[in-house]
Fold Dephospho-CoA kinase.
Amino acid sequence: MVKVGLTGGIGSGKSEVARRLAARGAVVIDADKIAREVVEPGTSGLALIEAAFGPQVLREDGSLDREKLGQIVFADSGKLARLNEIVHPRVGERVAELQRAAPADAVVVYDVPLLAENNLAPMYDLVVVVDASDRTRLARLTGLRGMAEQDAVARIKAQATREDRLKIADIVVPNEGDLDDLDARVEEVWARIRRHRTADA
């Protein structure tokens, strides 16, 4: 098994790279998706969040109001730590479960937005960083996602710098062009990952 950490700043195209690696046979484990799953209605994670932060963090349909919860925890480091105590172990358990279910010779790609911020690079055999300039990312966030410019700038600034991500990269995927360019780059990355798997076998 080859464990690949995949990261990139918001608007870099990381999700597009993850989709293309999955299409080539990688087992993709999406940390953000799992973090949402472990707090869905009916889970112990959501019950603990309600107990810790009150019923005001739930929507009328019983699902988590992420915006309301964010306003509470990002203004109070103690509350953020409490939320992380609830969510992180559940994410870790689910990731381990998915990893155990993967074939022994699989390429497992962990899609982790905050890989650099949380110093997780040592956990992986290879770290792939999807890279685009801040200007390109800002244009994508405002143009393709319809985000207000000041919100997009704030999101970019809240993450690791481009330089910090590039420092931990074993493989860099430049993504300033179109999707055809990206396909060609991902094909090169896939070939390199497979060579790594063969070398380790």
